[in-house]
Amino acid sequence: MQTVEEFLAYSVHLEREAAARFGELADAMESGGNREVARLFRRLAHYSRLHLEMATARSGFREMPEMKPEDFVWPDLESPEAAAVWGADPMLGREEALQIALAAETAGHTYYKAVLDTTDDPEIKALAAEFVAEEQEHVTELKKWLAASRAGEPLPAEG
Fold this sequence. Notes:
Blueprint: H1 4-31, H2 35-59, H3 94-118, H4 122-151
Helix pairs in contact: 1-2, 1-3, 3-4
């Protein structure tokens, strides 16, 4: 990451894709009758939209680079939080859906942490630290849901 503008462009793209994918996962879980997990995924989509709004607001007064989807260079083939497309299968079980969501949030956390650890720019470092902390909260929440699901316990309360 060379500039704050580049960091924000990547963040906007990443969070937009994450919101869309979590929305798709929520729809799939709802159509499969798993309303509790659908609500969780809708909340995760909401969090991604909040991150998107934050990145967009911070980029508002800056001259942002024009980047097409193919211009982004990700650690894997797609942005880190873009949960696997096959996860939108309505026949997918609760545990598998939670694992997909956990993998996406963990990848997002890892991505922002790598930016935090490798940049020398204090403004990028501050922004990345915020995103790392928020992604860690999501990872922690999903781990609780997955543990409860595996133990056959009631799913954690929202929030």
